[in-house]
Specification:
By secondary structure, this protein is of the alpha+beta class. Helix content is about 40%, strand content about 15%. Helix 3 packs antiparallel against helix 4.
Amino acid sequence: MSTGHTDAVVRRSPDGRAHAKTGRGDVRAELADERDRLAWLAETGLPAPRVLDWSDDGETATLTTSTLAGVPLSDLPAGSAADAATALGRFLARLHATDPQTCPFERWLAVTVPLARVRTDEGDVDEDDFDAEREGRSATDVHQDVIEGRPRAERLETGDLVVCHGDACLPNFLADPDTLEITGMIDVGRLGVADRHLDLALATRSASDLSLNPAYGPTAADGLLAAYGRPADPWRLEFYRLLDEFF
């Protein structure tokens, strides 16, 4: 499938068996990040596209990957949403059970909070896309909330570092439309070791937001957390949604 959030130009092969993403500048760097993570995922047994080809002339890069079977969770009908959400909760538990010592990619706060500052300073934060509770505020102002929350969040993340998808929104997971089991994950350029609440925060926000995913809703988000099987800290869920405003 070509669904997923990306600023790259995405093309599908005529036979549907491959996808190619092409981009320049920052997108080129993001494609390299995704390539490296997909190569690592291929060694783990976790379902994700396979890298078929990579080309880079120094200005424009193209990443070609295999096409995964399945339908994006965001495209499923309302009658399937509850079961799909619980399947995602189980899948995130599986992903998070991967040994973080084997993962070479870092997305913990020592990495992401400074990166949020850089994106703010360079004007790369979309202030028009802030969540409702932060509408009308500047990126600089919102980043101050991140700075104030960081010490508490860093104390808490130490015991909860796992391999996270990093952008665990519904469109980035595919499911078999009949069984509703997860068939794989896409757009993995932010995958890395982080507090498990990073994925839980974005997955439950995505499921709860009826303006984005009207088939789901808060009940589906609750089912996702129940299927995940471990309690979630409400404060950390909110903190990681705050931090995600910068990415």
